[in-house]
Specification:
There is one protein chain. The protein contains 21 helices and twelve strands. The chain is of the alpha/beta class. Helix 1 crosses helix 2 and helix 10 runs parallel beside helix 11.
Length: about 450
């Protein structure tokens, strides 16, 4: 009655297990208590499931390990996801056995962000515009008031102010980029941002495929109509995550190769921020214009970077994953750009038999990207190992399956934002619809729906 469980990701590496002998040695009394909980839990499972495999799969102690998620399922009065889609995945996939026994314990509260910090504090120019349009700063304590900005999206004067704010914020960020990394940002280019933990499911590699394709397009037709863009990455990899570190290395090779390519000058840039951190995010968020939220559907629990970028007027290109689902419910097709397989379609494709090599062979654009990475870059590095993982390792996160949809969606997005008025309209609508993702709402829902606290 006093312990609730919030699960923050469906990724297996985050569902902690601890060696039994370590707990026995360091925490002998805790171990005794765990054993008794496990004994009672086993009785409960056998009573409900008989002697089938669901009992063993849900034990707290098995195979010499303590399974912490199963301990939470046994001991907690609520099991909570951090977005609507994530809550459904917990119920229908990850913890479906226990959900069948205790459906009343399962719920979700979508994550939230502190709009006072991630708008008012870090983006004073936009804060000033919001206050002018709303007639005061009441939105600081009532973020739902941001929705009153929506009618101003069609005001030419407001759109002009919105674009000017972005221009000045990009100039500020350019100064940060020089100081932080010695990078000369093209402030006239669209700032296309993917900042988050480096993980294969978040698919920074999919964005790298797009960048490689754009560079090849410029080589094929140097005089093509091309909206200048700068792709900004910020990410860190876990210490032992070799593939994630190789993806960072690839992004840095792309950055150097494109910087030295005369056909890309003033058209295409890549900037991988060193030491991405909160202070770097505070500099970047106000300047961002496109937000890349492109995880494999079904893998992202929620995301909060997507909310911070939305709050600062960036337009999202993304999959129907995590909190993107709820963002889309508020924004619709006109104000958010969706692509790719849905979570159920990902599983269906795997079940039917997915052959990434066949996808590559059938798509000249993908084939050329894979060839380029295998051949290598001007710095002498090649990435045939990443290519092999994609083509012959099963492409676990469906990069090749989603690439064509991603490419076409990106083209549709850039066609829309080539009009400065439409870019400003999209920015203002995103700010207006972001109030629901404030932490104030999330705290109220935790208090009301999980902890039953009377305010």
């Amino acid at each position: 009655n006093c312990v609730a469980y919030t699960n923050h990701t469906v990724m297996s590496e985050a569902l902690e297990t601890w060696p039994q002998d370590l707990i026995q040695k360091l925490l002998p009394r805790v171990w005794e208590i765990m054993c008794e909980i496990n004994r009672r839990w086993c009785e409960y499972l056998v009573k409900n499931f008989g002697n089938d495999q669901r009992v063993g799969a849900n034990l707290i102690i098995r195979d010499g390990s303590v399974h912490m998620a199963n301990l939470c399922l046994a001991a907690c009065f609520k099991v909570n996801g951090v977005s609507s889609l994530h809550g459904d995945i917990l119920k229908n996939e990850l913890f479906k056995d226990i959900y069948s026994l205790r459906p009343e314990r399962f719920t979700y509260v979508t994550n939230g962000i502190d709009h006072r910090r991630w708008l008012a504090q870090i983006n004073p120019r936009l804060h000033g515009l919001v206050c002018d349009l709303l007639g005061g700063d009441e939105y600081l304590t009532k973020p739902e008031e941001l929705i009153r900005l929506r009618p101003f999206a069609d005001d030419a004067g407001v759109r002009e102010r919105m674009n000017e704010i972005k221009r000045l914020n990009k100039a500020d960020f350019a100064r940060f980029a020089v100081k932080n990394d010695g990078f000369a940002l093209n402030t006239y280019a669209i700032m296309d941002v993917q900042v988050k933990r480096l993980h294969e499911y978040k698919r920074q590699l999919l964005c790298a495929m797009l960048i490689t394709h754009l560079q090849q397009q410029l080589h094929d037709d140097p005089n093509m109509d091309f909206l200048p863009c700068t792709f900004v990455f910020g990410a860190k990899a876990a210490a032992g995550y070799k593939t994630a570190k190789r993806i960072i290395e690839l992004l840095c090779s792309l950055q150097a190769d494109i910087a030295a390519d005369p056909l890309c000058r003033d058209k295409l840039q890549v900037y991988f921020m060193q030491n991405y951190r909160v202070s770097a995010a505070e500099a970047l968020m106000p300047a961002a214009q496109v937000s890349e939220q492109i995880s494999t559907a079904g893998k992202e629990a929620s995301g909060t970077g997507n909310m911070k970028l939305m709050l600062n007027g960036a337009v999202t290109i993304g999959t129907l994953d995590g909190a993107n689902v709820e963002m889309y419910q508020h924004l619709g097709d006109e104000n958010m750009f969706l692509f790719g397989l849905h979570a159920d379609e990902v599983e269906s494709l795997r079940a039917r038999g997915y052959d990434p090599k066949a996808v590559s062979d059938a798509d000249p654009a993908i084939h050329n990207i894979m060839t380029r990475w295998s051949r290598g870059f001007a710095d002498g590095k090649n990435y045939s190992d990443l290519v092999s993982q994609l083509l012959f390792g099963g492409d676990q996160y469906m990069l090749l399956a989603d690439f064509d949809s991603y490419l076409k969606c990106h083209q549709r997005l850039y066609t829309a934002i080539s009009d400065p008025g439409e870019l400003a309209r999209l920015a203002l609508v995103n700010v207006a619809e972001s109030g629901v993702f404030a932490a104030d709402r999330a705290v109220r829902e935790y208090a009301r729906d999980i902890w039953r606290i009377d305010a």
